Amino acid sequence: MKDLFATLPDEPPPLPPDYLDTVLTRGRRAVRRRRVGVAAAWAVLLLLVAALLPAVHLPAQPAARSARPSLPDHLADYSLLTSTVGRAPAGRAIALYGYGNGETVNMFQSLVVGADSDTYRRVDAMAERNRPSALLSPDGTRVLLGDDRGQTGDLVLVDLTTGDRRSVPLGERAGVRLLAWSPDGRHVAYSAAPLRHTDEFGSVNVVEAQVARGGTLRLLDLATGRDTPVPALRPAWTAAFAPDSRRLAVQVGQEAHLIDLTGREYARVPVPAGRELAAEVGWSPDGAFLATVPWLGGGPSSGDTSHGNFLWKAGDVEFVPIAAGTPPTRVPDVVQLLGWRAADSLVAVTVDGGGRVSLVEVRLGTGTRRTLSRFDTGHSCELGTQSCQVFDLHLATGLLPQLTVRDAGRPRRGPWPTPLSGGVGVVLAGAAYLLWRRTGWRPGRGRGPAA
């Protein structure tokens, strides 16, 4: 060893010019790369967690019921991030409606909006059945739907507070149109008829027209499952329960037949030509008159109801007395009658010249109007390329007398749909891998500058 050291020169060879600066620069660069890599990895990890967290299916916690139901002063725009009732039930709803557009590609949603908070959910059971005719229960806790794919042997009852579904068997398979739900929530009136033909590819709704032309009225007791046909009332066009839930008005041709829950008829009320009993809500809260609106389609003889079309065609509401009496003055510029706040106050849809849809309260007699809420119909549909359209709109009619209007907050749409969360997760994981390859950082590597 002494001999080895003896061979070394007394003075070390000179270092290359700027050697120290080069070493320090390389060291700082390695430290920066390591720190940037660690920070980026943590950022990607946090983004990954944030993206996947909404996909975690936590126990459903529906909105707490408030003392008084409310309606947001404006309804949120279209969003693909809206979760479903089955996955994340949000509690009772104030409205059920269709929303979307099909100008380029069909992108429609069947939605419920909360009566207690700004929750929005897609009704997945409706999407599975080709968005059939559906009814929202008067208390806003349930949705009942048929099947627009063809004949069905059951109706589906969806509980909005739990997400559970219950099959309600029918006596036989048939095409179905749902007509009205009684105020006490127990009975449903619907029309049923065998279908002569169906659409093989499921692209056209052949149920509505065929049943409208030849459907027989049926009364379903949801508590017992009893299904009572009323063969004399065919074709049943529209229907509305009386405020006591024990009587029903059913339009056949240009007459409204007044019956009890056994199907026994006790009176008839003429419906003016070119008009129809307002669907679901045509019997006034005081029981004194029926509300009528112009045909949207070709009328009872054609089978074209147009009830599922976009909301755009304005008409008026005219009132027909059930017994002697003077009916209220007609209400002009109404697209759809939705329900009643009181005997002298109704809730309706209006559409302005720009196509903006609003919900308004109208006072009978004075005609004064108050806007309750507006729909966002801007260009947020079809990936931001088309305006949004509203259709098949229903309100929880039993909640309207106590209804208040709330300032709309940030929409609470629930956890992201699983496919979307998974796709975002894959993208972020791929970004993390590419970043790792780009920086070349590994644990325990690059802790000091290379010589």
In brief:
The chain has 451 residues and is an alpha+beta fold. The chain contains five helices and 26 strands.
Mean model confidence by pLDDT:
85
For the largest beta sheet, what order do the strands appear in spatially?
A: 6-7-8-9-10-11-12
**CATH superfamily placement of the largest domain:** TolB, C-terminal domain
Helix content: 10-25%
Report the radius of gyration as a whole number of Å: 32 Å
Give the overall silhouette: elongated
* Total count of helical runs of at least 4 residues: 5
Low-confidence stretches: 53-59, 446-451
Provide the CATH top-level class of the largest domain.
Answer: Mainly Beta
Level-2 CATH architecture of the largest domain:
6 Propeller
What is the name of the CATH topology of the largest domain? Neuraminidase
Transmembrane segments: 36-56, 416-436
Keywords: Membrane, Transmembrane, Transmembrane helix
Protein name: WD40-like Beta Propeller Repeat
Organism: Micromonospora siamensis
Topology (SSEs and partners):
Layout: H1 2-6, H2 19-52, E1 70-72, E2 74-75, E3 93-101, E4 107-114, E5 120-122, H3 124-128, E6 134-136, E7 142-145, E8 152-159, E9 165-181, E10 187-193, H4 207-214, E11 216-221, E12 227-230, E13 239-241, E14 247-252, E15 255-260, E16 265-270, E17 275-277, E18 289-294, E19 315-321, E20 331-334, E21 336-342, E22 345-351, E23 357-363, E24 369-375, E25 389-395, E26 404-406, H5 418-439
Parallel strand pairs: 1-26, 2-24
Antiparallel strand pairs: 3-4, 3-25, 4-5, 6-7, 7-8, 8-9, 9-10, 10-11, 11-12, 13-14, 14-15, 15-16, 17-18, 18-19, 19-20, 21-22, 22-23, 23-24
Helix pairs in contact: 2-5
Keywords: Membrane, Transmembrane, Transmembrane helix
Protein name: WD40-like Beta Propeller Repeat
Transmembrane segments: 36-56, 416-436
